[in-house]
Amino acid sequence: MTHSHKVGRFTVTWLVDGYGRAPNTLFPNFDMDRARAAADQAGHEYDGQTVEIPIQGFAIQDGDEITIVDAGAPDGYSDTTGKFVAAMEQAGIDPTRVTRLAMTHLHVDHVGQMVEPDGTMRFPNAQLVSGAGDWDHFFDDAFYASKKPGGREQASIDVTRRACLPYAQQRREITGETEIAPGLTMVPLPGHTPGHCGIRIDDGGDSLLIWGDIIHSATFQVAEPDWGVLFDIDPDQARATRQALFAKIAQDGTPITGPHVPRPGPWRVEKAPIGYRLTAI
Hints:
Blueprint: E1 2-7, E2 10-23, H1 32-42, E3 50-62, E4 65-69, H2 84-90, E5 100-102, H3 108-111, E6 127-131, H4 134-138, H5 141-145, H6 152-164, E7 171-174, E8 178-181, E9 184-188, E10 197-203, E11 206-210, H7 235-252, E12 256-257, E13 267-271, E14 276-280
Parallel strand pairs: 4-5, 5-6, 6-7, 11-12
Antiparallel strand pairs: 1-2, 2-3, 3-4, 8-9, 9-10, 10-11, 13-14
């Protein structure tokens, strides 16, 4: 499934991979009363046990240049994902014509379709662009060894390594806010991972921020920006980044979307009786 939106000269297409369902325990600060209040404010159904988490990437087209922002979950990730490649086909995107992979970060559900089933590059002519620190983090053998042998976290890192390693000779690391192509800027948003970034699109007074994993659940975390997730590498930094970003874009009105933001979007963040809320544009 796809959905497109114009940002000046750019065409941004949502490449929907599917969705997951996360238990309450994903959120270390979870509180049932606050969760129900947040869900009510967001207008989302909540069964008291799990929340739906969209999983999607984006294609940004500028003339002949195509930038993919995040590349879905790997095959077999869940029975409700696996549509990323079909979404690219529906959007008419030839992977061999993709110019760059601008990754918000390198977690498994963002890099899963960077390679074919045989491990070769799905995007052979694309440069892999990511925030400084992420590559070293996911290829850190000491970090890997600190996880349960054969456990879920090691398996996740294995998938990330398998997806990223073929691009080792055509990758670029970004330090600080950096324009990676005219009108496309990588914006550091650290905490979830060391190199976690957003990608901001600007043209002719129009803008859109693809904010990475600033949130996983719009049901909870927009109203409760102090709620992180278990996968945050630096929970305190992730919380501070989210709080500062919400305050900034609620004031300046920057439109947003993200890999785990509800569709279709884009949205604006505005102050609400409880924290913030998303409003459709």
